[in-house]
Amino acid sequence: MSMSTILGLIVLGVCAGALSSLVGIGGGIVIVPALVGLFGLSQHTAQGTTLAMLSFPVSLVAAITYHKNGMVDWKIAMILCVGFIVGSFFVSKVAVTVPTLTIKKIFAVLMIIVAVKFLFIDKK
C-alpha cells in the first residue's frame, strides 16, 4: 500500500470521524462511498471494511461475517480507525457548541448530496 493511499485513508477517517461527531454519521454515508469511488474497493468490501473499522465499538458480529466471506480489508480498516478517532475527538469538542438547527441543516445537506449521487450520478 502506497504512502499516498495510507494518508488518503487517514484523511478519510478523520473526515468521517469529524462528521460522526458533528451530525452522527460517518461509516455508511461517508466511508463506504469513498472507499468505492476513491479507493476502488467493491461495494461489499467497502461495507465489510467499514464494519470492521467500526467493529470495536459497534458491529463486531457483522464484520466477522463479512470477514468469513473474504470481504474485509483489515489493513484499511485499522488505518481508517486511527483517523476516525482523531476526527471524532477534535470535532466533537466543536460540535457540542454548534446550534441544533445548524447541525440539522448540515446533516440534511449531506444526505441530499449522497442521495443525488446514488440516484442520478452513480452508474455502477
Low-confidence stretches: none
Q: Could you give the distance between the termini?
A: 25 Å
Q: The biggest beta sheet, please? A: none
What's the pLDDT, averaged over the residues? 86
Could you state the order of secondary-structure elements as H and E? HHHHHH
| Strand residue content | under 5%
- Looking at how many chains there are and whether they match, the oligomeric state comes to single chain
The total count of helices amounts to 6
Q: Number of folding domains?
A: 1
What does this structure look like?
By secondary structure, this protein is mainly α. It has one domain. The protein has six helices and no strands. α3 packs across α5. The longest helix has 22 residues. The two termini are 25 Å apart.
Quick overview of this protein structure:
The protein has about 120 residues and is mainly alpha-helical. It has helices spanning about 5-25, 25-35, 45-55, 60-70, 75-95, 100-120.
Show the helix and strand layout.
Layout: H1 3-23, H2 27-37, H3 43-54, H4 60-68, H5 74-95, H6 100-121
Helix pairs in contact: 1-2, 1-5, 2-3, 3-4, 3-5
